[in-house]
């Protein structure tokens, strides 16, 4: 596809591959290395007894990568999300695997994503200190999306790509949201944000590692009032806040005690070379739609 380019490339490339020093050391026996005997027994029942029944119950054509959503790493993630409630995990995995057959997120028509990619409201670039892919979001561009369903579809496409970018031993992403210039009038419609959050929580359990709110303002208070009821306590604890070079954002927004609180610098989470200059980093990458897309589809 061909996307319109408003500005020429300055320099730099999108970072879709983690540098060696950010790839974690994978423990022997991963992902079972940290499980106790009761958890191992529960996982064994999930894998040996329930998983074949789940697969047999599914309708529609199988996806090409369906077995990747039935390995031990995925099963452990679903068990953790339900606090090791086996029955709840079976129900959730059944729902997700059927949704994947119906929605087919790995077979989306990318030509329909042209306008959404070109807006640049969400991009993947870099990795945090734990090797997690970084998804950058700019709410001030949200109103430029004219089709809410297409916007959500593009967000899910990026999640699928982020999963492919993860080094072995990494299962989560870091979402970095820049609230600079964001208002009630130019942000994503609440209905779109709610739909995306619901899909993320339902079908991608334990995938969110951290959600950093950069330079938050009063708009975040509104957004949190809308999305907060849809977040479980674990998700809320993953929300952290950073004011940037000045403290203006901190004065405008008071973080809820349910969240992870305030931090002084993004570099507590991300090395400077993995951060774009807009976030105070050293990566001089400028988003250019066509060049970005050409690299993203290769992931």
Descriptive overview:
This protein has 299 residues and is α/β, with parallel strands linked by helices. 38% of the residues lie in helices and 10% in strands. It folds into two domains: 33-106, no CATH class; 111-296, 3-Layer(aba) Sandwich (Phosphatidylinositol Transfer Protein Sec14p). The protein has helices at residues 37-57, 72-81, 86-103, 114-119, 148-165, 190-203, 218-227, 233-237, 248-252, 289-296; strands spanning 122-127, 133-137, 173-178, 208-214, 239-242, 262-263. Strands 1-2-3-4-5-6 form a six-stranded mixed β-sheet. Strand 1 (122-127) and strand 2 form a beta hairpin. Helix 2 packs across helix 3 and helix 5 (148-165) packs parallel to helix 6 (190-203). The longest helix has 21 residues, at 37-57. 31% of the residues are buried. Residues 1-11 have low confidence and may be disordered. GO terms for molecular function: phosphatidylinositol transfer activity. Residues 112-287 form the CRAL-TRIO domain.
List keywords for this structure.
299 residues, alpha/beta
Task: Spell out the blueprint of helices and strands.
Blueprint: H1 37-57, H2 72-81, H3 86-103, H4 114-119, E1 122-127, E2 133-137, H5 148-165, E3 173-178, H6 190-203, E4 208-214, H7 218-227, H8 233-237, E5 239-242, H9 248-252, E6 262-263, H10 289-296
Parallel strand pairs: 2-3, 3-4, 4-5, 5-6
Antiparallel strand pairs: 1-2
